[in-house]
User: Fold these one by one.
Assistant:
Number 1:
Amino acid sequence: MPRDPKRRTFLMGATGALGLGNLPFLIAPIAAAESDLRPITDLDPLATVYDDVSGHHVTGKILDHWLQHGRVRVFGRPISEPLIADGRAMQFFESGVLSEDPDTQDPSGVSAMNLGQTWWEANSEALDVTSVDFRSSYWMWWTGRGVNPEFWVKYLDEGSAFAWGYPITWGQVVDDQLTQVYQKTRFIMTADGPVLDPLGRWLADLWSIDTTPVGRLTGIVPYRADRFAPDYGPPEERRVDVNLTEQIARFYAGDQLVYSTLISSGRHPNYTWQGTFNIFSRVIDERMTGGTEEEGDQYDLWNVYYTQYFTRSWIALHYAYWHDEFGAPQSHGCVNMRLDDCRWAWFFCGLGTQVTVHR
């Protein structure tokens, strides 16, 4: 039986909404708790900003996650005030819904709803699909679909599997426009290029969420991107700590923790080397090859952005666009990172930055 998206339910899981985890074909049901959402009224001025374009506040852990993982590019601007139900904060954005998630491994403590999956389940039967485009720039075995070539650059350069999820349809022509649905979003091709379907607005309307703009509260600063670009001090005092047990990389300026993120380290038999190393080579757009056909682990990957090598066996911190299994070992030995995290690490680190890997 199709799920009713009109139910105001938390559908959050360890890897996003619907609690689908790592199941390959997104078929697992999940028990959802009925919850009445209400505005958070006691916003902390020191942990809150106001978006004067949309007229809404963002606060706490959801603000941290929004800032770290794409901001307007991925989630759009906030369209509701911060909400709470069952002790968990939740907020609607133009293209996303974020919620505090006690089950996530992410250090932010927040997960993004799988809006694309939710939209598809609610609308797929009514869509007038005139043709299907089976072309693929990169095939994702998790869902058995490939990213359409018309959307590949946006998918790759703006967040890949973590930001958008895996494709759950092939390219589809609907209303004379090429579209493709991913777990977390839907891309639409326009005359100006691919854009995000504002699915956050779709669900907010469906759930009757109040999206009326509000005035800025006293003592809360307006959001400005440059306010979140601090000076971390001398480069020689910066270091990276990679915890293989937790699958978390932490970045320090001196003794102060300034950033932390989920990673994916090497899996059997190609475990990530432990020890203390220093970054000795940096390539902003790398091609990586390795493995063997005999062992079944051969790979040839282009566009591996923000690659920073720190062992003489060419183990690196780098972008991984081919999976969204962060928090579990997945790599051939390297430290896989999400786009915004590895971009941040690129500017934080430099040649000589110390990297310690341990359990």
Number 2:
Amino acid sequence: MEPGRNPYAPGAGTPPPTLAGRDALLAAAKLALERVHNGRSAKSFIAVGLRGVGKTVIMNQIQQLADEEDFRSIYIEAFDEIRLADALTKSLRPVLLKLSKKANAHDLAIRALAGLRSFASAFNVSYQGVEMTVKPEEGLADTGDMLADLPDLLLAIGEAARISGGALAIIIDEIQYLSEMDMSALIMAIHRCNQKSLPVVMFGAGLPQLRGKMGDAKSYVERLLDFPHVDALSLEDARLAIEKPANDEGVSYTSDALDEILRVTSCYPYFLRFIQAGRAHLRQALYMPALAAIRFNADMKAKYQALIAVGKPPKVAITAIMRKLAILASVLLREGRPWHDRSAVNA
């Protein structure tokens, strides 16, 4: 296959050429969006899984579904030490400006903008971009208590969205980075919107430990949210993810090659795309780690020396170590455990 036509492109959150094995999760998101848009109750959900299973891709797909359902959607990618107040203030402003242009929602949208200005002031968020011409409404999201102010703010926005005939979807990736206070406030805000039957829904994605962290934040979280687990693909879905993009380009795999890819990657989406992207890409990523492993890891060093001792060229021996590293990484991801240097423990 010509490099310029190679459909495989591994990367953090980049969409795969064929999104396999996630139909049930996307169908659940679509149903939730439809119900919320129709004024019906629906559970928000947070997809949990290890890195490399495609959670970010799923969040992007859900935002696309939300846009197709005529939602106002905001997408937040959380990071270490993020303040939810900062991210929400910047993301919600354009939503409210669009709502304020609808005649039937104008007054409620202006009220919500006033609440957003109060919210930004209460949490020392920069006013840049928040409408200074809108007078704050006393008593609306202005206490400086996130547990009180965020629910008030989302209720105001939900009221404006409902009267406009629209809805709001909040999508947060890497949600485990939120502080416990921010997480509690977010859960409470979504809960209050559900109680008022407002068209507000939240989808998130995070690492497996998130479930326990959110349970600590609010005891009723599992009644409010679902936590679908995103894992490695099934063999059938992994085969589809590998074969379909190649077949679309007029290329096919031998059965032996396909079986080896499935074995080495343990059907993890990122590794599937990583290996398929081309041998040069794989060599570039694993070459230096292999050299370090040969030098500092006793097991890898012994394997390398054994291959050299039986006459294997150094490049062949290094390639064997690279392969062992790829297999090791896929096993650790599948089992959700950190790597431990057994040679150091045995010493």
Number 3:
Amino acid sequence: MANGLAIGILIETGRAGRPRMQGMCRTTGGGEPVRFAAGAFMRASQSTVNVLNSMHVVRTEGLMHYDPDTRAGLIALIYEAALDRQMWPHVADRLADAAGATVCQISTYDGMTHTAANVAPRVPSEALQRYEKYWVHHNPLVAAGRRQPLATVLSIYDLIPRDELVKTAIYGEFLLPLGLEEKLGATLVDDGSCWAAFGVWRPGRMGPFDQAIAEHLVDLVPHLQRALQMNARTAEIEMTRTASAELLNKLRHPVLLVDAACRILFANCASEDILTDQSGLHPDAKGVLRGIISAETDMLHKAVGQGARQSQFGARGGGGPFRLSRGSRQSPLTVSVIPLPAETYWLAPRRPAAILFVTDPERVGNPTAASLRSGFGLTHTEAAMAIGILNGGGLKAAAARLGIAPSTARTHLTSIFNKTGTRRQAELVRILLQQ
């Protein structure tokens, strides 16, 4: 019901005497904790209301529209958003109305890439951009919220006392001008690097949110959590489809799909041997690709990160090829970075940012004459000579295959050395295989 209080519920108060709702509570008789029954809100007698008010339960004159029909419609809409992410702005609007709020915000943040995404349709887009670009990194409420138990509905002043919060830059420069002074919310998902949260906001003139609204939000939290988990799973499936996994698996060269932090999202079958070889390109404990030399790793990560940022604005291009060392006994790997166009995976922060094409010179076949002419500027005869050397037997065998004199072959070889920047046949073979 709209303004009812649950009979026999004693609310634990946080700092500043605000309701602290956790999905369970104790009865006033001191019995065992009882869980909230979904939607089972009953109107209390006046005596019960007085008892609760005497224990600092805050009442408000703000309008609230949360009856059984509203609850059922909201939950249905939440699960629609679980299947169609474009529905989340509608969820935010309906949730704000049901809670007597002016704004509902649903946010995700990826700590690996330091990127945020928000759904808050009633906040000006310019303000959201400012928040995602700057304020999310300078918001003390974020750290305070993540220190609280998951799925615990708290007021803004449970996180930071009012007298401290009003002195912060984000309050004076961002929250107050937008009328975001009173809030109830909770962290929904937090795996250590990525988290998601929601909150309902309204101006201070409307007063703080009351205990009944907090109960209603507690009732909705499990549904919001499940919807986000479903979003993440379907996004992973879509990402795999987008990358055309079947096609990539048929390629004989290693191909990796990574996010903006260079974490592996997909690796084709040809990548297996390279990734398990710790002497070269390999994932760390968090799935982030690394080489054996930190400077080369930094160069690769920078290329992937820059490509991801450029693709958000429609720019296309690539990075590399980069050489990644593998020790003295193996030839370096060659990696090319191809940025992917930005997609709206706001509830899946680990979205694909780039495809990496990896060449292992010790596992690939011989290059074609056309690729040698294109790559090094060799003539037709020089390209044929170079392939002859790759096929084994040395200079004389190559000359015999081409039907030319050894002296002529040496002239061609000298020209090949000059064009490829090599001095010996062994070095030439290694360079040609990399090509």
